[in-house]
Structure formats: structure tokens, C-alpha cells
Design a protein that fits this description.
By secondary structure, the chain is mainly α. The protein is built from eleven helices and two strands; from the N terminus they run ααααββααααααα. It has one domain. A two-stranded antiparallel ribbon has the order 1-2. The longest helix has 30 residues.
């Protein structure tokens, strides 16, 4: 049982980092970024190239992933989403753009890296065996887990105590009122989208160290991110964190106790989600983060 809980907490931290970027973009722009999983994959490949292929430090690989996806997010928001949102009054336009962007990134990633799964050398060798609790954790997973928690904490501090963070929170709460107070929707919308993409890239860069990366996983990552956002509440940062840990625990327990009945873990998760949304359609915390 202890091992299952630890695995669930580890998965939950990774999932929360993925969901944070998606919910930030939705809160600021009311855009469902279907390409979020592909941005995760792109971040994983950046770390793979720098750390796995070139042999540079892992921290440098993470930095390259973060900066690359920060730039990609800023360009995508300024030249694609901003004109569409400005010229079209229909939500379907941004959704179709996001879906097209996901297919575009899938094609580019497949063209550049192929279908084969790629991994990198372990960050650190060895395992921790906590005999009193019958828990075994590889050291590289401990490093990745600690880094993930620190990144989540840094993001929350940034959003809570910095001027750009407060400006983005104001836009998420009441866009018109924030603009009347002098907050630039274009500037902070681009910053928010770029930060959301960067968080996806960082998650991909971290997880390539333990699970590897392949060109075909972007869609499933996006689905998991949407699940977490739906559980916690669309556009709610604490909800995304809660949704990540809930999904991580459900997956860990499902893979441990439902494996004997076949691959039905996500069947049970989706069924539970439908029941949950019928009771709480806005998720656990269905209001903008204040």
C-alpha cells in the first residue's frame, strides 16, 4: 500500500505540472490548447538532444526545453491565437486552430525524430529502500519529484507575489476590469500562453529522464491534462494541482488493483469522471483563481 501511495504522489506531481500550463492558458484566454501534449513532447525532445545526445548537463537540457517552449508559446499566441480571437467571435475557431496546431506539431516531431522511443541516461544511479514502509524509490525519480514540486511552488509564488502574476490573475478574474485598470491584455496574454507552454516543456524535459519520450504520446498527454483540469475546475490553478494528484492516485491504485481484470484502469477513471461531472459539472473549484 505504501508503495502505491508513493507512486501516486510521484505521478500526481508530474501531472499537476502538466495541467498547470493548460489551465493558465484557459484562464487567461478561454482557449483549450489541444496542442499542450505536443508541447510536452517537444520539451522532452529538447532535453533528449542536449542531455542524451550532446552529453551536456541535465539542468542545461531543462533550461533549453524551458526557453524553447517559452519562445514557441509566445510566437503561437502572437501570430496565431491572437488574430483568430480578435477577428472571430466563435469559440470553435480557436478550438480548430488548437487542433490543427496539435497535428502540425505531431507531424514536425515525427519528421524530425521518427517513431522510435528515445531515452536518456539516468540522472543518478541507485535506489532508496525504505524497509520499514516496504517502499523502493529509484534515486532519479526522487530527483525528478523534488524538482517538480519546487517548480510548482515557484510558479505559485510567481503568480501570487509578482506584478506579472497579479496582472494575469486579474485578467483571469475580470478581463474588462483589469484592462480598465491599465493591464495590457495582449502583453500578459502572450506571457501567460508562453508560461503555459514552458510548463509543458519542463514537464516533458523532466519525465524524459525516467520514462523516455516518443512522437506518439502527445495526444494521450493532452487527454490526461484535460482530465485534470475537468476534475479541478477549468481555469483554476489550485484545481489543476488537485486534479493532478487525484489522477495520479487513481492511476496508481488502478494499475495495482485492476491489472488482474485487464487494461481497464482508464475505463474506470473515465466512468468515475462522468459520474463526478454529473454531480459537480464545474469541478472541485469551479471559479477563477483569486
Amino acid at each position: 500500500m505504501e508503495q502505491i501511495v508513493v507512486n501516486g504522489l510521484y505521478l500526481g506531481a508530474q501531472y499537476a505540472l502538466i495541467a498547470l500550463g493548460l489551465t493558465l492558458i484557459f484562464a487567461l484566454m478561454n482557449v483549450l490548447n489541444f496542442a499542450h501534449g505536443q508541447m510536452y513532447v517537444l520539451g522532452g525532445y529538447m532535453t533528449y538532444l542536449v542531455y542524451g545526445k550532446l552529453g551536456m548537463p541535465f539542468a542545461l537540457g531543462l533550461a533549453v526545453s524551458a526557453l524553447t517552449l517559452l519562445a514557441v508559446g509566445a510566437v503561437v499566441e502572437k501570430f496565431l491565437f491572437r488574430p483568430v480571437l480578435r477577428k472571430s467571435a466563435r469559440d470553435e475557431s480557436s478550438m480548430l486552430l488548437a487542433a490543427g496546431l496539435a497535428f502540425f506539431f505531431d507531424s514536425i516531431i515525427l519528421l524530425l525524430f521518427g517513431q522510435k522511443q528515445h531515452g536518456v541516461p539516468k540522472i543518478i544511479e541507485g535506489v532508496q529502500n525504505w524497509g520499514d514502509f516496504t517502499v523502493v524509490i529509484p534515486n532519479d525519480k526522487i530527483v525528478v519529484g523534488v524538482c517538480t514540486v519546487l517548480m510548482i511552488a515557484a510558479f505559485i509564488i510567481f503568480m501570487q507575489y509578482t506584478k506579472p502574476g497579479r496582472a494575469m490573475r486579474a485578467l483571469a478574474q475580470d478581463r474588462t476590469a483589469a484592462q480598465l485598470m491599465g493591464v495590457s491584455a495582449d502583453r500578459y496574454g502572450m506571457l501567460g500562453f508562453a508560461l503555459g507552454a514552458m510548463l509543458a516543456g519542463l514537464a516533458g524535459g523532466l519525465l524524459v529522464a525516467t520514462t523516455g519520450v516518443s512522437s506518439g504520446i502527445g495526444g494521450s498527454i493532452s487527454i490526461k491534462a484535460f482530465l485534470m483540469v475537468m476534475i479541478g475546475g477549468a481555469g483554476v490553478v489550485p484545481g489543476a494541482i488537485a486534479g493532478g494528484f487525484i489522477l495520479g492516485m487513481m492511476e496508481s491504485f488502478g494499475l495495482s488493483y485492476l491489472r488482474a481484470y485487464g487494461d481497464i484502469t482508464y475505463l474506470v477513471i473515465f466512468a468515475s469522471l462522468m459520474v463526478f461531472l454529473s454531480i459537480r459539472p464545474h469541478g472541485l473549484m469551479g471559479k477563477p483563481w483569486g
